[in-house]
């Protein structure tokens, strides 16, 4: 007799787009239906809400099942509310044609709301560098303000600085290094065009951090130079521009001169499949040895061509 397998419950699409903290909050508090038109987004919300395929799937789930995990809001003026967590679910509810959504209404200070908003969104798997940068910055400022107030107690977690730097406490709570927090926050000093290149993966983190120390005008000039040369600065080029900027000598001509420098990864190269020439080299031959032998062979072939031309015989030495 075949043994029956126990059914394994699968997570709903709504669960896939929320953090465990949000689901725990939904279970802990009372829920009220709030008209979507009365819910305002969180001020300077650093996380993007895109109408992509994931949003389409979430909207379909909401249309069929409703909003399973309530939004978290704080009461505002004039009967309105500010959304703390659930920006994607609110957008999905709008796309699904809902007029209201279940919400947990909580009383929070502005700093407590910032920390809750950032923490709920940092649970997402896919976060752009710019999103993480501004989220870290907002959370750090909220923690600093909390550290300055002796009458403020945050029940969510112990943000007691106890003489330590806020950035060190933030790194510890996020489970990342202090240098990583510093680097991400430096990205908030980039002009939008350069920050977009970082988000798109076309500019690396380390040179972007160094470029963030340039003035806004210098960065705009650099952005023009990058577009003209179809390249981004290397780490060493970024360091060079940062040094000249700090010395007050980084003008437009110097920026363009630095960006016109040839970088090793931009040197045009000619590649030959290894299998095509493997029989001419021992298996342990290094790349440098292979390159040197190929160049030497071409030099000898060129010499033979010249000798043949001098004797007036002509012919194509490349012909087989």
UniProtKB/TrEMBL annotation:
<dbReference type="InterPro" id="IPR036086">
    <property type="entry name" value="ParB/Sulfiredoxin_sf"/>
</dbReference>
<protein>
    <submittedName>
        <fullName>Chromosome partitioning protein ParB</fullName>
    </submittedName>
</protein>
<comment type="similarity">
    <text>Belongs to the ParB family.</text>
</comment>
<feature type="domain" description="ParB-like N-terminal">
    <location>
        <begin position="32"/>
        <end position="122"/>
    </location>
</feature>
<dbReference type="GO" id="GO:0003677">
    <property type="term" value="F:DNA binding"/>
</dbReference>
<dbReference type="GO" id="GO:0005694">
    <property type="term" value="C:chromosome"/>
</dbReference>
<dbReference type="InterPro" id="IPR004437">
    <property type="entry name" value="ParB/RepB/Spo0J"/>
</dbReference>
<dbReference type="Pfam" id="PF02195">
    <property type="entry name" value="ParB_N"/>
</dbReference>
<dbReference type="GO" id="GO:0007059">
    <property type="term" value="P:chromosome segregation"/>
</dbReference>
<dbReference type="InterPro" id="IPR003115">
    <property type="entry name" value="ParB_N"/>
</dbReference>
<dbReference type="InterPro" id="IPR050336">
    <property type="entry name" value="Chromosome_partition/occlusion"/>
</dbReference>
């Amino acid at each position: 007799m075949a043994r029956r397998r126990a059914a394994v419950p699968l997570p709903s699409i709504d669960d896939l787009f929320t953090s465990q903290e949000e689901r725990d909050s939904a279970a802990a508090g009372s829920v009220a239906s709030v008209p979507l038109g009365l819910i305002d987004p969180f001020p300077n919300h650093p996380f993007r809400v895109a109408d992509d395929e994931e949003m389409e799937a979430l909207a379909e789930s909401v249309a069929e099942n409703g909003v399973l995990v309530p939004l978290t809001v704080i009461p505002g003026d004039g009967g309105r509310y500010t959304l703390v967590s659930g920006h994607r679910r609110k957008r999905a509810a709008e796309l699904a044609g809902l007029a209201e959504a279940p919400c947990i209404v909580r009383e929070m200070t502005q700093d407590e709301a910032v920390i809750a908003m950032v923490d709920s969104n940092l649970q997402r798997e896919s976060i752009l560098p710019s999103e993480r940068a501004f989220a870290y910055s907002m959370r750090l400022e909220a923690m600093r303000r909390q550290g300055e107030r002796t009458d403020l107690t945050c029940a969510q977690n112990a943000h007691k600085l106890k003489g330590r730097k806020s950035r060190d406490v933030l790194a510890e709570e996020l489970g990342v290094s202090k240098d990583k927090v510093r680097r991400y926050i430096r990205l908030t000093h980039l002009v939008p065009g350069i920050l977009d290149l970082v988000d798109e993966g076309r500019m690396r983190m380390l040179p972007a951090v160094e470029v963030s120390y340039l003035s806004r005008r210098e960065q705009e000039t650099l952005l023009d130079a990058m577009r003209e040369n179809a390249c981004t600065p290397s780490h060493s080029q970024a360091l060079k521009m940062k040094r000249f900027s700090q010395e007050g000598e980084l003008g437009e001509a110097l920026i363009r001169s630095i960006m016109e420098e040839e970088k090793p990864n931009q040197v045009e190269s000619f590649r030959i499949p290894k299998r095509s020439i493997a029989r001419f080299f021992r298996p342990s031959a290094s790349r440098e040895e292979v390159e040197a032998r190929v160049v030497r062979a071409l030099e000898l072939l060129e010499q033979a061509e010249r000798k043949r031309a001098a004797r007036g015989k002509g012919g194509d030495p490349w012909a087989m």
